[in-house]
Amino acid sequence: MYGLLKKIKTKQLGDKAVCILPTTNTMKLHLNKWALITAVLLSGTGMAQPPEQLHKSVILTPVNSFTSGVEGPAVDAKGNLYAVNFEKQGTIGQVKPDGSAVLWLTLPEGSIANGIRFTSRGQMLLADYTGHNVWLVNPLTKKMKVLAHEPRMNQPNDLAIDNRDRVYASDPNWKAGTGQLWRIDPNGKTHLLDTMGTANGVEVSPDNKKLYVNESVQRKVWVYDLSPDGSVKNKQLFYEFSDYGMDGMRCDQQGNLYITRFGKGTVVILGPDGTKLNEITLIGKRPTNIAFGGPDGRTAYVTLQDQGNIETFRVEFPGREFKSAKKKSSKK
Predict the structure, then answer these.
(1) pLDDT, tens digit, for every residue of 10-58?
(2) What is the DSSP letter of 164?
(3) Burial readout 132-162 (b: 16 or more C-beta within 10 A, e: otherwise)
(4) Least crowded by CB within 10 Å, which of 89, 255, 261, 295?
(5) What is the pLDDT of residues 282-319, one digit of tens each?
(6) Domains of the chain, first to last
(7) CA gap 154, 132 in Å, rounded
(8) Do the Cβ atoms of 208 and 253 come closer than 8 Å?
């Protein structure tokens, strides 16, 4: 544009100065050059890129790369995704962002994990439903130790964790159609919080003031007031479905709750007030759990029982644990 301005000359006519513009072709040439430069600059900022496609599920790992027991997706502070039962039962697989997966850990004989979470120090928590244990795993050494063993548990299933590293575990009895809700403190002490239907998915709200638990057979989602000391009260029905089951669930940072609909092949998004916001269709029909990760926390990962794999899609907001995970990583 500066070159074009240099070609604009002035001529004095009496007491007035008149601008003499360059020829039409010269003007067009400079304007076209400026338009091209502008387009390049805009594309560099991402403004010229097509809008991002949200809620479109695609396959991340190959079908049957995990067993039908695939569950418990969780993402560490470095962005690595983990899920249980990679290639065979009793294992933990690690999945890279490109979908490549490797065997990361083999559990002790007889142990099979379900839910996975990470503590504020980056330690991995595993719900071992066959051994009635909650394991604590050092991700650097892969050394395992039992955080809690509770003989009264039916089978520790899904896990949630609050900002004080207290763990909340669902504990279903599938044959009886009943369940329990437990809290495990960082010192390993267990507390029975409630008895209910077939407790399955469990999650803490972003402000750590609500605890959500769903009942797969009864098709109900319950919400509790979560006290600073880890106790629960004021249990209320949050949402009830008329068909299909439910499994794992997670919150984003806005407090929206993502619930996997086992048998229906969808993920339902509920607002903090219980309003149904959206329903995302998956490729598989039996989703078992969901987690958030990716460079901005806005990539959802869903484990599929019928496909033995993991699907992924993009969402509007980062997962509840994303910011804290980044802060933990920067402190190390």
Answers:
(1) 444 454 444 444 444 444 334 343 443 444 344 454 455 678 999 999 9
(2) T
(3) bbbbbbebeeeebeebbebeebbbbbbbbbb
(4) 295
(5) 999 999 999 999 999 999 999 999 999 999 999 999 99
(6) 2-36 (no CATH), 60-331 (2.120.10.30)
(7) 7
(8) no
